[in-house]
Structures are given as structure tokens and as C-alpha cells.
Amino acid sequence: MIRGSIVALITPFHQDGSVNYSKIEELIEWHIEEGTGGVLVLGTTGETPSLTEDEKDQIAMTAIRASDGRIPIIVGSGSNNTYEARNQSLKYQEMGADAVLVITPYYNKTNKRGMLEHFYAVANAISIPMILYNVPGRTGCTLTYEAVRELSRHENIVGIKEASGDITLVSKIAKLASDDFAIYSGNDDMIVPLMSLGGAGVISVLANILPRETSLMTKAFLEGDIERAKQLQLHYLDFIFALFSETNPIPIKEAMNLIGLDVGGYRLPLYAMEDSTRAMLADTMRQVGFAV
Q1: Which of 98, 260, 279, 292 is the most exposed place for a label (fewest CB within 10 A)?
Q2: Active-site residue among 56, 161, 219, 253?
Q3: pLDDT tens for residues 84-117?
């Protein structure tokens, strides 16, 4: 089980719009140095819907090779096509991924049994750990407590990235937290609240630009320094809100570029920030100590 801060890594692009693979290697080295506990590639923050299959494969392989076993690499393999999710998961397993993240079947959605069978089809096909991903704001469907309870019994299903923002649902799912099933916050504004209910950490957008601080927040909580964890959560709260002032990952990539990390632009339909939100983001960054 990975505990602490797992970064939901952005996908960097060159000026011509192609994927900047060398920057991925550079960012992974930085995260290792800064104490990040794991790296997720090909998640929502990685603009995965706008990537080709070849690009996805190359990003996964680049991350796995750059890590070289020093930090766990989780690869997003989810799809609303169950067989594609299964096949992608098998492919990433063969590449050497440490785990896969599988999202609920968006757009076509499903009924209660179909939701379970979607995840079972993937989990039964692979031997590496699988993490569920619940983000109803993106998918239009949700994992209920009852579904998570049943899925958590599968030996390959080891956790959930919970990004519903529904603290009542989180509280119910928290009853399932154990050494065999981890709950990760999918919302940076709820890291400490979710960990207070037994969460193992966060799969984080914030960690793209504040890897050490996000790691310190989770480590402080896990080591019993609740006050320190709370202080860090509250200190960065306005900045976290600013990072979601427009569709993720638009603000986080803008913030990273503002401090010279040079991660490039976006793939349509994502587009550059509005001037007003960019100014607000820069102001919020200055308030937490960035020189922009």
C-alpha cells in the first residue's frame, strides 16, 4: 500500500504540441527528490482523453523506465469500454506498472451489476494492484458504498481514489479502510478531512507544483502531527481553490509555467486560461510564497 502523496502527473508538451517525454523524466526525478510517494500517469490531470494510443504507451513506458523501481508508477487504464480497460491494464502490467487506476464507465454508464462486472473484468485479468476511481463530476455516474464494499473484497482491488467531494459517502467508505484497502483523497481541499477518517493519503494535483509540501502534509498526519497537517491544509487552501478555478489541468499547468517548469500548453478542447483567472491565480501564488 502506498501511503502519503501520489502525484497525478500532468502531461508536458513541446511548443509544437507533441509530448515532451524528456520533461516527464525530469519531473519524475524531481518528485523522487522531493519525497513524493508515487506517480500516477495517464489520469485526468494528464489530459489522457486527448492522447493517442501510441502516446499513452510511450508515456507509461517513459515513466516506468524513469522510475527504475525507485518510486511506484500507477498508470490510468480506465475506459467506458470494459474490454479496452482490461486490455490496457494487461498491457501496462506487462510494461512493468506497479498498479493501475480504473475509472467508472462514463457516458454510457451502467446499472448496479454492470458497474461491478466492469471492475471485476479488469481485476480478474491482471495480477498487479488495481485502484478504483470515483469522480462523478467527470463521469456522470458514481460508485456507491455498497459497490465499493463488494469490490474491496477482491484480492487485486486495493483501494479507491475518492473524488466525489461527498463527505457522507467518504465517511461510509471509510468503514472499509484497512491494511488491504486504501482510501485516497481525489480532492486536494479534502486531504486532511479524508485522512482523519482513515485515508492513506492523496492522489494530488497540488503535488505537481508543491510536491514536498503535499508530502509533508500527509506524512505529518500519518505520524500523528495532526496540527501540522491541518496548518498546511489551511495554508494552501486558497491556492488549491485557484488551481480549480478553471477545468483541471489548465490552472496547474499555467502555475507550473509561471514558476519556470516549462510544461507547455494544452490539447484542445482545453485552452489557455482567461486573463482574469490567470491574474487571480498569480496573485494567490504570491500569497503562498511563489515569486511570479
Answers
A1: 260
A2: 161
A3: 999 999 999 999 999 999 999 999 989 999 999 9
pLDDT tens-digit readout, 133-187:
999 888 888 899 999 999 999 999 999 999 998 889 999 998 888 888 999 999 9
Alpha-carbon torsion (249, 20, 85, 202), positive or negative: negative
What is the share, in percent, of the chain residues with pLDDT greater than 70?
100
User: Residue 161 catalytic?
Assistant: yes
Main-chain dihedrals φ then ψ at residue 125, nearest 5 degrees: -90, -20
Task: Give one DSSP letter per residue of 65-124, joined into a string.
Answer: HHHTTSS-EEEE---SSHHHHHHHHHHHHHHT-SEEEEE--TTT---HHHHHHHHHHHHT
Residues belonging to the chain: 292
User: 3.20.20.70, 3.40.50.450, 3.40.47.10, 3.90.1150.10: which CATH number matches 4-223?
Assistant: 3.20.20.70
The separation between CA 28 and the C-alpha centre of its own chain, rounded to angstroms, equals 14
Read off the DSSP letter of residue 128: S
123-162 burial, b at 16+ Cβ within 10 Å, e below that, comes to: bebbebbbbbbbbbeebebbbebebbebbbeeebbbbbbb
